[in-house]
Amino acid sequence: MLFRKLAMALVLGGFSLVSYAQKGETVKIAWIDPLSGLMAPVGSNQLKTLQYLAEEYNKGNAAGVKFEIIGMDNKLSPAESLNQLKAAMDQGVRYITQGNGSSVAGALVDAVNKHNERNPGKEIIFLNHSAVDPDLTNHKCSYWHFRFDADTSMKMEALTTFIKDLPDVKKIYLLNQNYSHGQQVVKYAKETLSRKRPDIQIVGEDLHPLAQVRDFAPYIAKIKASGADSVITGNWGSDLALLVKAANEAGYTGRFFTYYTGVTGTPTALGQGAAGRVYQVAYAHYNMTGPMAKYRDGFKAKFKDDLYTGSMISIFDVLTGAMAQAKSTDPVKVAAAMHGYKFKGFNGDMEMRKLDHQLQQTLYVTVWQKADKKYPYSPENTGMTLAPVKTFEPYVSSTPTSCQMKTP
User: Fold this and answer.
1) How is the beta sheet containing 125-128 ordered, strand by strand?
2) Phi, psi angle pair for 231, to nearest 5°
3) pLDDT in tens, 234-251
4) CB 116 within 8 A of CB 144
5) pTM flag (> 0.90)
6) CATH of domain 23-150+289-360
7) Inter-helix orientation angle 238-250/217-226, to 10°
8) What is the assigned CATH class of domain 153-282+362-397?
């Protein structure tokens, strides 16, 4: 009888050990993004964001794991990113994150796919925080790639639904960065506007080099000459900050419909003169309550900087939830748990869609205006803010996918 009790205790103990095998483990995440060049300020902010959130989640999470963040400068280069990926793997990293530049993301997806196919038992998961080219979850989709931002087409679907109800928008200029994301902004702007507001004229379009233009005055001159009352741009970082700076200096008074107004440098460039004329479509905004407000305020107190990459909150929510569900930190088991994972996030009910690993979430259109009692948060201490003017539930901006997911 005593033997049977001891045997049962060992069996139960074994199950307990398996159930909590991941508790106390340290999970390394390699962040592969720019820390040099014109986009360095954005990269620096996002690395600090990831490190700060790791510290917060290390205080306690569903999986009981600890996170270690390894920052790696890719100089915004696909080739350098592949070098950094190899360096990360040499350090035993099984999880990587990146988001600045869809051309970089595409190179990383290909490399991760090849690595995982050739090295069973050493698989890597790619956590995409901000690279939004729709191809990454369509014909280039991968089981090992999970996107936590809304893609270009989803944001354009919401943005043009908003624009269609603005009768004074009649002539639009498309100005974008000359790489996959910028090209997709142009494509989806034309498609959705022709469907929702065929009366709107596209009076000009330009694609310019990514993170290389220091003076946008010539582009603003072309926009003014075209008679455009509005500009749609997917520009980010210095390419948006310098664009709006040039617009202010040239006295352009048209609207800007953007994806990344809240990102480092742009709030300061906008100043007070752009009030009521600049709109942003995004999965979050500065004046949210709940977890976003908690982390935003904690980050501001610690770094005197603004937390705007909320997708990183979702990364930790999904990772810790999936690891708890899988009872493991093994990427194969965690990927299986993340596949179709549903959760209550900072942005309401969210789902990592099984079909293509594109996170489904609420989107917001906000407008640049003076901060007030209702919307008090002021990025870069400008006295201004992004105030929500329209909310789009996940089903509104959810776009179909052509992904043919190949599961292991």
Assistant:
1) 66-73, 26-33, 95-98, 125-128, 145-147
2) -125, 135
3) 999 999 999 999 999 999
4) yes
5) yes
6) 3.40.50.2300
7) 60
8) alpha beta
